[in-house]
Request: fold
Amino acid sequence: MPGKRLPKAISVDEVTRILEAAGADTATGLRDRALLEFLYSTGARISEAVGLDVDDIALHEAEAGPAVVRLFGKGSKERLVPLGSYGARAVDAYLVRGRPLLAAKGKGTPALFLNARGGRISRQSAWTILKAAADKANVTKDVSPHTLRHSFATHLLEGGADVRVVQELLGHASVTTTQVYTLVTADTLREIYAAAHPRALG
Reply:
């Protein structure tokens, strides 16, 4: 696929360090951790995450498995995406201990992720939150909210997920868009093979 820019993913270790560096036990800190855990857990676009309302998330109907989130993608196309246990716990902690304090400063918006004034958080703020966490975690690569989406897809495929399942989770209209991630994974396989096989290079 010449001319196709390969998505830039970061390693699982780098993602973990960023997530663990995010947030503190304050209303905005709980929000920051919840937002970043949410982005990596669901692979949501940043516009989808900041556009979420509290009612779009079903944390407590999740006895049978992961919680489920309703995301509204391009062209308002709706899809349901699982939210892993780390993401669900972070969002739950924010809903219980963080959001009410932020909401008290606003005008009663239904938005899930609120800014310090109680309004819906902006895409720019989300970018700043991620940048601060990456700096704190000493991740020097250029990291944006889209990097977490790329990493979500790449890590799922490396873990053995089917490309069509990943397509569904990402909300891609065509599987061709998703297949760019399989190129990244193939590159990784070649690197590991070259490094590990005694007769790979000679």
